Structures are given as structure tokens and as C-alpha cells.
Amino acid sequence: MAAGGQPFLILHSASPGERRTALLRGDMLEDFAVERPARPDGVGDLHLGRVGARVPALSGIFVTLAGEESGFLPDNQGGEGLSEGQAAVVRILRAAQGGKGPRLDRKVPRDVAAEGPPRRLRRGPPAVERLAASHPAAAIRTDDPETAATLRAAGLGDRVTLARRGTLFEDAVEAAIERLLGHEVPLEGGGRLLIHPTPALVAIDVDTGAATRDRGAQRRVNEAALREAARQIRLRQLAGPILIDLAGLAPAARAEFVPALKSAAGGDRLLRILGTTALGLIETVRTRVHPPLHEVLGLPPTPLSHGLAALRRALREAESRPGAALALRAHPAVLRATEALDGTLEEYRRWTARALALRPDPALLPGEEVIEDA
């Protein structure tokens, strides 16, 4: 899937409860984001907050946001000089993580008011707007009229094309996205990556497969693995410590592969490559901004992810059969999670002019959902 020199293309698709945005260069997936409007990650949001306790050991302060959520504002991001009880306008710099509140800064417009109770003042830009800003020459295709109108109002009308719902993501793109939802990534020329996030770190193992006995082939697989590892780290938005275990090499020999990883990851400003450990693992760390894909979708996918994927299929079926009354038959856990996501079934009803019937079926495992006539 070589993409050298080809222009970028942004695809944005809306389905009930979910928005998927992909950046392509040629036929290569370069960036990907999944957003659930009912559960935004908050990055980029502006809040009027109330300064809470100062924590000298952490060189910062806690700030109470809307809904009593607490974020942390480091002194070097604008917290110095603020006192307890003071109102302050802050921006969410990094999403919340593992029970810890979001990271904040004070890089906000000067004309934003700082009076009243804690509340959100403005939402941060969605992925399609972020990608449109960072790739100003990229064409944008969306199947969502509201998104098209917003982008055109922002002066991007000459870049925006509106498509029929459910028609944007071709099979090759869907296959590339599907690989982001699993632990295993096949490599060109043989071998595979095995990606395992844990609460403490992400472990990436290189399996050379049949190339194990051939040193030249083994080296080529390791080099290909590092190129793909850099890409998967970016696409999955992995964060925190990331350790890469190359295959079939003595620990001392692995350090010579570090420059190859640095070259492959050159465009990822969030990733730092630290070198190798005593065991020969390549050690990296990546700054967290948005939640990693596995936190949004689950790895393996959660019942909600299966439910929203089924709604995408139902929406495509409804688009191809206008007026058809459809039903979703699925495990009760899938239906409960889907119903619980605010506005999801209402979006399906609004876009298709028909309600979707829900049929619990305990015999179906999550991932075995069926779209059928109501």
C-alpha cells in the first residue's frame, strides 16, 4: 500500500452514536479517530473553573470543572499565582485517565469571561476539524450534512463533498480499521506484531514466523515490524510507556535497530524513543492527549462497540431500502449498552424516519448481531 507523494484525503462518517474520521494518503490509512458525541473526551474544551487545593509536591493546583469534575493545572501551564477559590478559565490539554482528572492549561482566548459557577464554555474541535486544520490541502468527504454545513461555514466549502450515508469507507479502509481493533497485525513479507496494552504499559512483540531460521529474512522482518509498530502506535493513539520486543536477536544487537524506529516515527511529535533496556527491549514513551483507541472501543471490543457497529450496518441497510422497518437482534448486554448511550437510537430514528426494533437473543454472543426485517 505505497502512498508516497499522493495527496491526503479526510473521510468523516456519522452513524448513530458515533463519528469515525480517517486520514488517507493514497490507499494508506494515516490517522483514525472514533468519537462518541454523548461521551466526548473533552480535549480542547474551555471551562470556567474554580481553583481548589494547591499541591506543592506536584507543582500545581486542582481546579473544579463543570459537574464537580476535578482537573489538574500545573504551575508551568498557568497555575502559578492562582489562589484557592479564584475563578479561572482553563482548557483541557489531555483527557482524563484511569480515575485521574484531565490535565489543564490556561492557553485560552483573552476575551473569555471568568465569572459565575464552574461550567463548560466551549467544546474543543472534533477530529475532522483538527485534521482539516493540520492538512490544509486535503479534500474532505463527509456523509453528515451537519458536519458539511459546519465546515463550509468555517470557510472550507471548496474542500468539502457531501456523500450518501454509509458509502465513504471502502472495504480496504474498513479492513485497516478492523486490524486496529485486535492484538495481531500481519506484516508484509511474513511475521506479525502482537500488541498488548496493560494498565502500566503497552507491550509490542515481534513474531518473525517462518523467517526465524534465516538471519537475513529475520532482520528484514524486524525492520518491517518497527515501521509498522510506529504506524500502529500513532493510529491506535497509544500512550505512556511502550516496550518493543524484537525477535531472534541478542540484547546487545538490538540497539542498532533504534535509528530505524526513530526514522519510522519521525512525524509523531508525541513519541520519544529512549533506547534499549538491559533486556534489549526498545523503550519508548508517548504523551497522552486523546484516549487510546482501545479505551474507546475496548480490546476486544465492548458490547457497546458491537452495538454501534451493528447500527452502522442497519443504517446502510435502511439507506439501500428506503422505508424498510428493521430490527436488531443481539445479546441483551449489547442492546442494554446501545440503549444507554444517550441519543443513539434517536439519531437512527431521525435519519431513517423509522424506529429500530430491538430483539434480545441470549444465544447470540457479542459480535454476532443480526439485522433483520422488523
UniProtKB/TrEMBL annotation:
Leader sequence segment: none
Basic and acidic residues bias spans: 102-113
Keyword Nuclease applies: yes
RNA-binding protein AU-1/Ribonuclease E/G domain segment(s): 158-289
Required co-factors: Mg(2+)
Chain positions covered by the region annotation Disordered: 100-124
Keywords for the protein's UniProt record, in alphabetical order: Endonuclease, Hydrolase, Magnesium, Metal-binding, Nuclease, RNA-binding
Protein name: Ribonuclease E/G
